[in-house]
Amino acid sequence: MTQAFEIVGKFEQPSDCQKLLYAPLAQSLTYRQTQVYQVEFEGDAKALEAFVRQVLLDPITQELRDGSSSAFAEAAFVLEYGMKAGALDLEKETILGYYRGLKNPGFEIKRLTLRTRIHVFGSNASEAPFVRDICNAAVHTWDVRRAA
Asked: For every one of its 148 residues, what pLDDT tens digit does the chain have, with 9 covering 90 and above?
């Protein structure tokens, strides 16, 4: 089975996109950033969610959502990016190291994928400057999804 978890800051507000980019934009856009953990696993789905809540979530400042769709449907587009397979991802290795140290977790992680989602808000927003300035073809894979 595969399950995706999206972690969203409870108290965060949309921020100016300009701080993500090297060159000024023609229009004013805002964004929200979230983290997505996609887990291919066997075993108890509730035990996996409990693990995610304990290890990856700060319940005071963050909330956990189903990561199979974007947390913000009103975004003009979503840029989702993460490390290429084979690239060193220290956060992923730390999570897997913690998991391997558990006795009888109730599930087995087959594959863990970490992705960052940048939700961009504003009309006529172009993804080109975001892909250019945020994604590095040498180490990242990415996908852009436009609002329906």
From this structure: 999 999 999 999 999 999 999 999 999 999 999 999 999 999 999 999 999 999 999 999 999 999 998 889 999 999 999 999 888 899 999 999 999 999 999 999 999 999 999 999 998 899 999 999 999 999 999 999 997 6
Domain of 114?
2-146
Q: Are 8 and 65 in contact (CB under 8 A)?
A: yes
What separation in angstroms does the CA of 54 have from each of 66, 109, 110, 147?
16, 16, 19, 32
The pTM is what? Answer: 0.93
Number of domains in the chain: 1
Residues 147, 30, 11, 58, Cα dihedral to 10°: 70
Q: Three-state SS across 1-57? A: CEEEEEEEECCCCCEEHHHHCCCCCCCCCEEEEEEEEEEEEEECHHHHHHHHHHHCC
